[in-house]
Predict the structure.
Amino acid sequence: MIEIKDLNLTLGNNKVLDNISLNVEKGSVFGFLGSNGAGKSTLMRCICGVYKPTSGSVSIDGQEVYDNAEAKAKIFFVNDETIQYTSFTLGQLKEYYKSYYVDFSEETFERLLSKVNLPLDKKLSSFSKGMKRQAIVIIALACKTDYLMLDEAFDGLDPAMRMAVKNMITDELCDRDAAVIVSSHNIAEISEICDRAMMIYGGKLLFSDELDNITGGFCKLQLVFKGDVPAESSIKLAVPGVMKISASGSIVTIITADSEEEARAQAAALSPDMVESVPLTLEEVFIYEMEARGYAGFMGEIEE
Amino acid sequence: MQVSWARLKNNVRAEKQACIKIYEIFVVICILVVPITAVTRDSSIYGTQFKMCDLPGVWPVIFGAFAVMTMVLTHKLFREMNSSTDADVILSLPMTAKERYFSKVLTLARCILLPFVISMVLSAFASFLCDKFIFEIKSASFTYYFKGLFLYYSLGLCAIMFSAAVSFLCCSFASSKSVAAVTTLFVAAAAGLLPRLILEGLILTNANICFESGYRGYFGYYCFGLSPFDRLINDENTVLLTFDYSRLLGGVWVNILLSAIVLPLGFIVYKKRDKSTLTHNVYAKPFMLGVMSLVAIFAIMYGIEADIAYVPYAMLFAGCAVFALVFKRMGFKIKENLGWLIGYAGVIAGFMAICAIAYFTEGFGLPKRPLDLVGRNYCVNVSFAQKDEFGRPRWDLLNIEDVDMSELDSIVADVSEICEGSKNFYNFCEYSGLVSKESSQDYIYVTNDNDNLADSRYYYNPYGYEAIEISIRAYYTAEEWDKMVGNDEDLAANHIEFITLTMYIKNSDFEKIETMMKQKHRALDYDEYERVILKRNNPEMTDEEIDALIEKIHRSHEEEQEEYDPEEEDTDE
């Protein structure tokens, strides 16, 4: 298990990670959510020992990670860049990583390579971004580590290849009790492959739970009115926990952090003709959390 | 944290693969060195003086190539210290900081030192076989080749280790490629040349001892920085090994050892660096202060040697200008960096204080004369360079032969007494700056022969002063020399020694010195000295024959003088 306790990281005068506590169990697929610059990648780098925590601890299976080769041997980090090792061929890159990871599986490498059909003897500089991603993912899987971290790993892949790589990861890891941590801006993708997720904003952990519990923690109701729709102030008064109100004709959609029963009871005070509960997606949770924190860039996208 | 040899080995293999291009280039250089050493001649290498081809100056180029390739490899090895993406990959690999750092040292050994050593052995064999079968030289044994090449390869190793030590240190501190590259070059130049400049500028010059000759026999001269290369480049045509093979070699190996001691020091900083120090490097400021101070001290010392009295002021100004232009643009505020500025000024002031101490204590009171270097008997030359009443260069010489050690001290003391008080104007650059003396570029004695001892630069007087020089050397006649040394270079190395003590004086009374020397120390002027030497070397000749020979020599000198008209040559140029 990866155990993060009261993790703080300060770079210069900036506190980029603020008191983060989190556990990643073996066998889980964990999604890291957050806006740009929220601290997802930084947290990942702390987990694999690239950053030394200012305070707090990060441990893998009970061993502190920073400057600990044994702990690091259990985790493989695929970062969001593809520019390193462009002077290597895939064969050379395989040999490079094979030197470090004692459990490297030639069989797995060959098997996965046959699925994507990448040339072994061509330099990575001649590969497309997607091909480089595939190459490093294959190597990461062949290293057979207990934990795999993929930072924006599906960027640059076409939809078919995204699916292929995702399948590759899930197929490989479901056979053994390994954990995957994925960060992506494509929340639909996260919700598709992850069973747990966390969200970080401004270096602070907003939530971390199973996906069902995350979406279940919010309630989205559609209220249909025959006459005029109530004013926003009236809705906020009736439903104090409301996070988002949007109106379209005679339909008002509200999202609250309350349970469905509580929200329905509160909304009844507005005398709607019909109240309907609508399932909430992870993407909506992400958007509303961002919106609630005034993440301007994201707001713009919503308005559009 | 325990170091795993398996991980070290794996990392060396992986790093070699990452640096494969640099490694291949270095191997090509090493391969090229083998035939070059086999067919070229260098008079300073034992046993290879009979070679057909002569490629003077090839060794400095080879040493330069070794040093540059070492620096390039080191910078590649430390890529995680200046590249964000490489930091992600390398710092997340299952290695501890200690394993990462020391595997870099081992990679250096694998990619640079191993091909280098193989190249040395092959060179010795190739040189030996080449002479035996191509040039058909029967007398030289393999030991000669190995011995000769061993010195040069030791110097090559010295270049590699020194550049590696500096590069490892700079790369451990710097957080960008450009800073690492620039600081490596500046630190290598400054730290490499400072020991020689300090020895010359602070000790020997203040002690009024000419650096150019005898002190190069000092073991310590070769122990630090790039001094051995300075010797090699300046004396490429002299028979270096016949002077002090063992001293030079011993010094060079101490030099190598010191670099090897410095090599792991970068780990102290390296182990504390994670990716955050790429953007927020807490070691940047002290490192830059260290580099700038070192370069400033180097510039001051260089200024002392080149008689540029205002260098200290210039360095202070340059430091502030760099701060104002570069650091301020990078967002540093003077108020926030007042400590840095004070530190820089403090280093310069501290060093100037050391210069002052050296000046007023006459080279820290050490060493007055390197008498221990000279053999059993002495020949003393007292030469006096000045200008005559028409402003033409004039050079007077007194010679005393078969001087005993006790008399030697007395001669130096007598000259010093007459020249007392004449020293207080030269060396201490701050002092020179304050008194605003202008530097004279005139040579007061010009010669066109290849005799190093008579070269005009030995008589360069910086401020229009006159120079008096006492050359002390082992004295042997030609017969004695042949009998004693013969053709054995090893034996020659133990006997050829000389030391020169130069005093820069003003308004000195050379006639007074001459009279005193003749009365007290059996000194002979140049004509008398010539007669004695000729008589000593030709005991069968009568006085008349000697006179005739002297007359003939003088005529020959006059004819040579007529043939060579420096003014005409200057005009032609």
Notes: Chain A touches chain B through 32 residues (CB under 8 Å). The longest strand of chain A covers residues 14-24. Chain A has two domains: 2-213, 215-303.
